[in-house]
Amino acid sequence: MLLNMKRIYESLFRTHLDENRQMAFVCGPRQVGKTTSAKALMSEACYRNWDDTDTKRTILKGTAALAIDLGLDRITETPPVIVLDEFHKFANWKSFLKGFFDVYAEKCRIIVTGSAMLNTYRRGGDSLMGRYFVYNMHPLSVGELSNTRPADGEIQLPSGSAKDSVAALLDFGGFPEPFIKQNKRFWNRWNDARMEQLIREDVRDLAKVNEISLMQSLAIMIAGQCGQELNYSRLAVALGISVDTVIRWVRILESMYYCFTVRPWYRNVSKSLRKQPKVFLWDWSGLADAGARNENFVACHLLKSVNFWADSGLGKYELRYLRDKTGREVDFVVIRNGEPWFLVEVKSSVKREMNPNLAYFQNATKAKNAFQVCFDMDYVERDCFEESAPVKVPISTLMSQLV
Prior knowledge:
Elements lengths: L8 H11 L3 E5 L6 H6 L7 E3 L3 H9 L1 H7 L11 E5 L7 H12 L4 E6 L1 H6 L10 E5 L5 H5 L18 H8 L3 H6 L2 H23 L5 H12 L8 H8 L3 H13 L3 E4 L6 H6 L3 E4 L8 H22 L5 E7 L5 E8 L2 E9 L8 H10 L3 E6 L16 E4 H6 L3
Parallel strand pairs: 1-4, 1-5, 2-3, 3-4, 10-11, 11-12
Antiparallel strand pairs: 6-7, 8-9, 9-10
Helix pairs in contact: 3-4, 12-13
């Protein structure tokens, strides 16, 4: 298996380039494969990285200088695809891209790739409104390893090849390089380097947080609470900082793709916002507790699917969990266009009884499907979404039907 393996996102990006004039903003964690997938769609001469000294000099001269450097002053048969990488590190990147797009949009197709700050800063103003579509790139998953071409709709047929990928993904995570190598020593060093870059470089330099040791402690505490509701007050007391600071730092760690939160679903939106979210990591492979790792694994797969479906223009999707005032709970619910679509409860063993809350919440929400995912259940060549009543399903079967 090669490190530059074909990703499912290449088809998504190619469709965007064929059908839209807007820039494609490709967001996602570091080392997830954004640049590799984007460069697969262009000629080598059209890649520019802000970290390159010559590129930086050109950018500082203005949009016309970049256009000449890219050859946009010459006539071509078709508009070239250009990739602009790490431009979020340039203080005036939004204004620069606005000016560049407004003048040269008809002469090229633009892909902008970046880490967390690209995803964060795009929400900071509307200067680029109408000029871009966002695509969220995730680590490898069971569904992507089973099928590198996106399904025509949301759900694809189950694939037997998924049987071999679940264990490897659980052990090594979905980031391409450690997954492909599948070497524990390499994973240990890669994981340490990733965390060092995330905390010591991205958080300090990009987010301007100086209390690095406290932020590192917060990251460790969050990892110990995966799958649980975040208690901001308890974290604040443990770290000796204010609740507002904890909330701000958690948002920074989310924006840096260290973790993500899942909120409860209620038809009353304000009630949902008042409740505490659950927290999960983008890389589940480092979690020591098997139950937490399994639930985090499923959370990442579901989040990847809802993001991919939304980015493909199929509708509006959300990942939530269900909990009522009596304490009844289901791990996850996928919301499609404002309505519950399917419920997912995570269990390590098929021997565990069916969670009665699945039937309760399916009846209450009118969700079409309700699955109890079992990690020790052998793959079954069966479309899980044909079942309307709550049903136990193998992790390999259900995940192979998603993205």
